[in-house]
Design a protein that fits this description.
Layout: H1 4-26, H2 32-39, H3 47-70, H4 72-92, H5 96-124, H6 127-158, H7 163-166, H8 168-182, H9 196-215, H10 225-247, H11 261-292, H12 296-300, H13 304-323, H14 326-345, H15 353-379, H16 387-421, H17 429-441, H18 447-478, H19 490-496
Length: about 500
Amino acid sequence: MNTPKVSFGVLSALMVAMLLAALDQTIVATAMPQIVTEMGEMTYYSWIFSIYMIAELVAMPIFGKLSDLFGRKRMFLTGLIVFIVGSALCGYAQSLAGLVLFRGIQGIGAGAIMPVAFAIVFDIFPVDKRARMQAFLATVFGIASVFGPIIGAVLTEYLHWRWIFYMNLPLGLLSVLLLIRFYTEKRGQHSPSLDWQGLLLLFGALAALLLVFEWAGSSFGWHSPATAGILLAFLVLFASFIWVERRATEPFIPLHLFGGRRFSVSQVVGLLQGAVMMVTIMYIPLYMQLVSGNGVSGSGYMLMPMMLGLVVCSVVGGRVVEKISYRQALLIAGAHIVLGTVLLGSVQAHSSNWLTICSLILVGGGLGLSFPVLFTTSLHGAEQEHRGTINALVPFFRSIGGVIGVSVFGSIQMQRFAHRAAEEGKVSPSQLQAVHEWLQRGGGTDPSVQNLASYLADSIIWVFQASAVTAVLSLLAGLWIGRERLVLPPSEAAAYAPKSGSRRHAGKA
């Protein structure tokens, strides 16, 4: 049994690493104007964001499986060191192309940190504490994702944009030292056998899928031959992956996991909620700039109510899942998200900011409640050798939902904006630039620019309404989760029986 000192040391190491990995998803957003100005080019502008997310998502299931085969500590340290090296290279980058390459290295390391961190928590904490500890990690991730742009702006303004990467070095090394000092892993007698065919096919399929949603509607368009070709490549690679995994002695991703209703429903719920979360984070700051004239930083602060709800309810969710059935927990979480997104979809230009704030608290609260619940439902009854893979798949599906949601809802938003803007005639690039400058100034009096800004705000409301539909689908999916509750395995039930005679360990609601 781990002592409190050891548990605290390990948890601190995991939280620091999670903080850095989550921050770097969004920290470059406010630094990009300075980076582009210094580098003198914009060719790979969007890839600074995209490559990190793509590399991270592709790496998640891979490192989750590798941690099952070769050990949590080894894979976590490998990923963390890759992340630190990538950060150092990003800080040193002399061109935008080099920065994109090094951001990809960073993303690979980040893709190892998240799933293995959750798996370590599952391994070192007893059942009655796991949900709460995983909730803490999920909370760190959520907070960092939102405050990344704010921290990036501060570092860029008062130091230099390179420090958004250099700050990872001392903190990353601190996490390495803490984990080496406090975490001693107990390894079984399992003989590792890596399914290389499955790994390579999965890598290719995921990369193709993410490229479809990254490029469709922007670089190539949904109906372009390039998009169709990439989508076809994904289908071929994914079908080949399924064929190989069904015949593998030790498959890279055990497909039998998806045969269980509880596990499959959990991933569907996570994917849909991921879309709602990322779309809200992406569009709330822009909407607030359009309707209230807030500056960039002021609009970013409007996400704080959402994070407040997420933080508080993540901790609460860790306890809720111990006391009620999984279905009841997801019903409560889903109801909060639905109500919050419906209210967001009803916001108008003249609406009080309090309506937006209350909406965001509800959305954040529902997401926070669901974080520990989805990890617990996915890991319910899982074998030791599959825990790393499962801990990778839960955030993986949530992140995939975010990527798909931003792409699909972004297309909805642009189509609505184009339809409304057609009333003004053809919108020229100079007019769009004028809208951008109007936002930077916090408003203006030019009627044509004001009209375009109002059309843009209207198109964003459509996105919020579409996310409300997605939230309803998530709520309905959660009803299929089943009535099971958190159950102590026989090996741990005896040890905790003297102090846990409550109903929370009953098998059924």
